[in-house]
Amino acid sequence: MSAGDRGCAASFVFRSLPQKAFSCLEDRDIGDRLLKWSMQGRITAQAFSFDQQFKPYQKDEFVMAFFNDQNVSSSLKLLSASGQWTTLGSKVTKVEATVVPCTQISMSFFDRLYSEGVVRETGDIVKCYDDYYDDILISDELRKVLLLEDSDHYDLFSQLDRKEFLFCLFKHLCIGGTLCQFEDVVGPYLETTKALYKDLVSVQKNPETKEIRIISTVFRVSAYDDNGLRYPSSKSHEQTFAYLIVDPCKRHVHTLYHCFGGSLFTN
Fold this sequence. Notes:
By secondary structure, the chain is an alpha+beta fold. It is 27% helix and 26% strand. It contains 9 helices and 13 strands. Strands 1, 2, 5, 10, 11, 12 and 13 form a 7-stranded antiparallel beta sheet that branches. Strand 6 (127-133) and strand 7 form a beta hairpin.
């Protein structure tokens, strides 16, 4: 890395915005669902501001600067191995940031689930014989669509569809944590996905066409220190994740974090 690159990486300054509320995670009904899905007490969202223009091509410098900013390091939450909330604390030496497409503006994206024998018109999820994907129980057609490439309905969503942030949120909620009690109907998953997406993502309306478009850039991120993988956890799991959602207009970053495990009753 050249001196100029180092200067660029150090040039973003971040500030924690603890007063920013994510109404979805404070909602009592959604809290009850997250408890049922074994995610309550293991999921959190935070907000930070930054001080200058963000360009998507700067993602690696931006993410490295984010994790090594003192205001982030001292306030970014993660779960320790013992299940206690702590903060990042250590110096980050390497980051991985994958761009997550974020273009969907309507929950009609999921309407296809109703047409192919995955979800009935009533909203009931079609059951199937029990199967396992890694350590995740599959007992219905919805989880088969989400996880099993040889599922009859896997092609309902293209590989590009599956990369969309909206799809990722839906999948995370459907799979849940270690002791997840699955829903019999799809409604709670869709409603919670919509509320979370709306809280995290920023949109803009074109004054002429009235068309709404998403202006946020989303990254799935990992951070390493001298001892190896540090954030979101020292143990990798498909359901242990951290996203940075960047609003370039407000110059805000939202973080969404979850660590796979059993539900915790207290934050």
